[in-house]
């Protein structure tokens, strides 16, 4: 297929959308358009063409996507079902490549795909396959990044380092792959720069393979003066069971869904969170090492405590 020049980004103001937008603009390879919701108050750099589209109206989205070669979606979890209309509109507008809002676990693995948290993402993959079969000029790429590395540490998600008793899942020894937000932005640029090599398939990327125990060791190294107590051990099979019970009672809450995410990231090898192969080289990713992780934690842990020491409120 021909080169991709015009790229529309949906969800550009989000946690992931912001670094993806930066990477697309910084690459200098694309004309970047942002699609935002009518209710969105987000602002964007002057070099970016901003269009407003109602994601619940196919006509509105088709009009906004006219002339675009590719659509990258980084919409948040609440908006994942809205991608249904986005895909239909992209096909109707003649878009050549669609990257849905994936950026996490590898849901080509049936056990992982079966976790309820991934239902919307699995459904969109199915829709993309059908759309591409019906309209072969419409293609897609599914980006698996593993856990967000910097975001996951900042939000105490990969390790709750702010506690004195960190939580370790399944003993904390399972290795999982993780990628920083900037590297994901770089990978999106890489996919759009290599449309033939990335056509209609999953791509896997990672900065590092690491375990919670390793993260805890790094956290202890960064802040040895902190009073670290024995970790709290949590079994991800229990978490999954408890989330299933809540879901069966109609309780759909973030903690319930997070139980499934912890199972997918920290659970046994069959969930595939330790990526054995990657597309790093094709997409231009160099990877990170433990020193990089230490630098992220150092900034978070020491930055945060010194701000708190001054009695100020920590702002992320
Ligand atoms: N692997 C991991 O560890 C990990 C962690 C977090 C997230 N993720 C994944 O990364 C992707 C992006 O997540 P994120 O956390 O970056 O998203 P986010 O910050 O919650 O939201 C991204 C954007 O979605 C847009 N949006 C459109 N319709 C919306 C609606 N109805 N409600 C709320 N927002 C709406 C908004 O953009 P506008 O205001 O411009 O319209 C918003 O800024 C998702 O697929 C998520 O599952 C992965």
TrEMBL record:
Top-rank lineage group of the source organism: Eukaryota
Ranges for domain NmrA-like: 5-222
Keywords in alphabetical order: NADP, Oxidoreductase
Name of one Pfam family that matches: NmrA
InterPro entries membership: NAD(P)-bd_dom_sf, NmrA-like, NmrA/Isoflavone_reductase-like, PCBER-like
Keyword check for NADP: yes
A GO molecular-function annotation: oxidoreductase activity
Protein name: NmrA-like domain-containing protein
Organism field: Ramalina farinacea
